[in-house]
Write a structure and sequence with these properties.
Length: 367
């Protein structure tokens, strides 16, 4: 098959070498570790490595993948390319090829991964947005996996400062479908990364591979609402194996989503209540101009004074009892010294004053 001259510039590999690189990387039975073993045996020559392989992907398949990346904002990177993330080069199973859509510059900036539960609580997503925004403002690119829940919240909050979504599927495939709008924003304002060929559909076996790239790209990992045996803990394990810092947000002991995070804290992870807890450990990777503390406080759960008409001791007590974490009215009633009709009346008045928020399941929280 004769392939037309590519418009893409390959600064380290010739076009022909890049085709061979892809033929070896895409060959059946050749994962990243086997790829690097063959390349070492071939004295770093892709031509020699290919002669040592039992099989190669068809030339037409490699050329098709190259052609598919000849679109605006699409990039196909090998480890020979200058834009390839330097952090990933430290992995023994570093992906030989990365499919990238978006801003290449984000790939080599200081970064922190934020991962957690897909079925995240409202308070968990609020916290993820807050810490992602503050870390982004201090100079960190936020890395996550574009899943629903904590991942999506972290991406949304860091679109303005820089965020990278690592996908298990092809970089041009949206999963889950509900994240279509987020995906479109990431294409325009962030970076999407995958080691899989374009068009690859999501598969359960691919997510652990995705998680190692999330850990590998970043200088540290923040976990929010990670259940025991969750994918987030797999990401943490990869980070630990690379000698990176783990930051774990504690949760309520009876919440299954907190078990993984709480266990990590027992094992030595940094107990994390705000962005300052991360910055105190990770500030050394930032340029000096970014090394001032984030504007956050350990007293974030204290409600500021509100202009609420006819403020009463009961209303003040309710506001002091509520945080951003939703609670049931029954739980609130048990903490207050009043009858239920009086409590419900006070809740209604606070809701009208927009001091509290009522959720679809009937629970309430502070705004």
């Amino acid at each position: 098959m004769v392939f037309r001259k590519s418009k893409v510039i390959y600064p380290e590999l010739t076009f022909e070498d890049k085709v061979l690189w892809l033929r070896l990387a895409l060959a059946k039975g050749v994962g990243p570790i086997t790829f690097w073993k063959l390349l070492r045996k071939g004295n770093d020559s892709i031509h020699t490595a290919c002669t040592l392989a039992d099989t190669l992907a068809p030339e037409a398949l490699a050329e098709k993948e190259l052609l598919a990346h000849e679109r605006p904002n699409f990039h196909l990177l090998t480890t020979k390319d200058k834009a390839f993330p330097k952090n990933l080069l430290q992995l023994k199973d570093c992906p030989p090829v990365l499919s990238v859509i978006g801003d290449l510059e984000l790939l080599n900036k200081p970064s922190i991964s934020i991962v957690g539960a897909r079925n995240a609580s409202l308070s968990g997503k609020i916290f993820a947005k807050k810490i992602a925004m503050e870390l982004g403002q201090r100079g960190f690119t936020i890395v996550s996996g574009m899943a629903r829940g904590i991942d999506g919240a972290a991406h949304e909050a860091s679109l303005q400062t820089g965020t990278i979504a690592v996908l298990a599927e092809g970089a041009d495939v949206v999963y889950p479908a509900e994240n279509q709008h987020l995906y479109e924003e990431l294409v325009k304002r962030g970076t999407i990364v995958s080691e899989m060929p374009l068009g690859t559909k999501a598969d359960a076996a691919l997510f652990p591979r995705r998680n190692r790239i999330i850990a590998g790209l970043s200088h540290g990992v923040v976990l929010i609402e990670a259940a025991a045996h969750s994918g987030s803990l797999i990401t943490a394990q990869y980070a630990l194996e690379s000698g990176k810092d783990i930051f774990s947000v504690p949760g309520w002991p009876t919440d299954p989503r907190a078990r993984g995070c709480n266990a990590l804290i027992k094992q030595g992870a940094v107990l994390t209540e705000n962005a300052d807890d991360v910055l105190q450990v990770m500030a050394h990777v930032l340029p000096r101009t970014n090394q001032k503390p984030a504007q956050s406080s350990h007293n974030n759960d204290v409600n500021p004074p509100r202009n609420i008409p006819e403020m009463t001791p009961l209303k003040e007590s309710i506001l002091c009892a509520l945080t951003s974490t939703p609670v049931s009215i029954e739980a609130l009633y048990q903490s207050q010294n009043c009858d239920l009709p009086t409590l419900l009346s006070a809740i209604s008045e606070l809701e009208i004053a927009e001091a509290i928020q009522r959720h679809p399941n009937g629970n309430i929280s502070a705004r």
